[in-house]
Specification:
By secondary structure, this protein is of the alpha/beta class. It has 16 helices and 10 strands. The structure holds flavin mononucleotide and iron/sulfur cluster (2 copies).
Length: 380
């Protein structure tokens, strides 16, 4: 399939590249390199190689860790090693990420300056091994968000795409952290959810517009779908990134996207959906979860009404005289049966799949308004 067809299916870009399937391989130090990824490339959209240590203190930490029996990538020259890894994947259609451990902002900017924008640079704020923490990276960054912000800004100074890999439940406030990562300029938040589950994905989706990669034991279609329907853009696998599991997940989500039109559509708000679900919400006329949600995001009812009315102008969602509120803008998800909506969709010459694609576009306009256009309370 050509990359435009993948874009039509998932509508997903990372580092300005089309992502052919919303499934990534997550890094495992000493294991996930280009040689590991190449035989799995057919069933993934992205791969985060590494973790790689990129300066003397972290390379020394890697040496100490391998002495005590942990698998680590070791080399004399990180630029040479990382450049050759990126080159090996450059002829594939997999978006390449590098999971990096560094001990200063300069270490990150120096690597990005030399390797360039062919890769996503992922800051490893996840590793909990003592030598790495002592070297000033890994999990310690979750307790020192200012240092993390400096690392992000150093990379963004080189105009590259930046991901931050975190472990949920380590920071005293994951939501504040997610917002700080967004405000520092990162593009992607890669979250090892540990045992926090999809609730954490929903909370983070409601907090920032970053691309979210959900991680940890996402080895079945049900679990993957649970992540998507609460706000994840991709899922990633490390320990179970075998060809069979990846192929099964890829086939299942591709089929689902082709049938449904929006692979990571949220649940309706009243069924526990995240704020993207405002795209399916009615006019604010009854007592339901819409009202407290608008209150929480600081949106007046009038503002919500005109936001949706403006956003559907000139689109197939604008009209719908037979529907409850006179426009498909206020109509529910295609999975909620309704003969009035279905009749209207039919009259408009739309399929259910196209209806959901239109709802997807509406949700993107709503998110753009909430996070980029509406004045924000920037207290954190
Ligand atoms: C052997 C091993 C090495 C890992 N090394 C790294 C690493 O270097 N950097 C990182 O961010 N995460 C690392 N991880 C964490 C994984 O990327 C992933 O977050 C975790 O294993 C949970 O996902 P899973 O259930 O799909 O394995 C490692 C995990 C394992 C098992
Ligand atoms: S507005 Fe409609 S879809 Fe939204 S929460 Fe209320 S009842 Fe549910
Ligand atoms: S017409 Fe049907 S889909 Fe549209 S708002 Fe009413 S019940 Fe929901």
């Amino acid at each position: 399939m050509a990359s435009m067809q993948y874009y039509d299916r998932f509508g997903l870009l990372l580092n300005n590249q089309v992502v052919k399937t919303p499934i990534a391989i997550a890094s495992m130090a000493g294991i996930v390199d280009a040689a590991y990824v190449l035989p799995r490339a057919a069933h993934i959209g992205a791969a985060f190689l590494g973790g790689y240590s990129i300066d003397e203190p972290t390379m020394e930490a890697s040496r100490k860790m391998s002495e005590i029996g942990r698998r680590e990538f070791t080399y004399e020259d990180p630029v040479e090693e990382l450049s050759s890894q990126v080159a090996l994947l450059s002829k594939t259609d997999v978006v390449t990420g590098l999971n990096l451990r560094g001990s200063s902002p300069e270490a990150f900017s120096a690597i990005a300056a030399q390797i360039g924008d062919a890769a996503v640079y992922e800051i490893d704020a996840h590793c909990r091994q003592e030598p790495m923490i002592a070297a000033g990276c890994g999990e310690v960054l979750l307790h020192h968000p200012n240092r993390l912000r400096e690392y992000i800004q150093a990379l963004k100074g080189e105009d590259v795409c930046v991901s931050v890999k975190i472990r949920a439940g380590v920071s005293p406030d994951d939501l504040r952290l997610a917002r700080a990562i967004w405000k520092a300029g990162a593009d992607i938040l890669h979250i090892d959810l540990m045992d926090t589950g999809y609730q954490k994905v929903r909370q983070i989706r409601n907090t920032c517009p970053l691309v979210i990669i959900a991680n940890n034991s996402i080895n079945t279609f049900e679990r993957m779908k649970e992540m998507y329907s609460h706000g994840a853009d991709l899922v990633s696998l490390a320990r179970h990134s075998d060809d069979r599991t990846l192929a099964g997940l890829d086939a299942a989500i591709s089929r689902y996207a082709d049938e449904q039109g929006w692979y990571n559509s949220p649940k309706q708000l009243c069924r526990g959906g995240d704020i993207r679900a405002l795209t399916f919400c009615c006019m604010p006329v009854k007592s339901c979860p819409l009202i407290p949600t608008l209150d929480r995001i600081g949106m007046e009812k009038e503002e919500y009404l005109s936001l949706k009315q403006e956003a559907v102008k000139g689109t197939p969602l604008e009209s719908g005289p037979q529907t409850c509120f006179g426009s498909l803008a206020w109509c529910c998800k295609s999975s909620s049966p309704c003969m009035f909506r279905e009749m209207t969709i039919l009259q408009q010459g739309l399929t259910n799949r196209e209806y959901m694609q239109q709802k997807h576009q509406l949700s993107e306009k709503i998110m753009q308004y909430i996070f980029e256009e509406k004045p924000q309370d920037d207290t954190c």
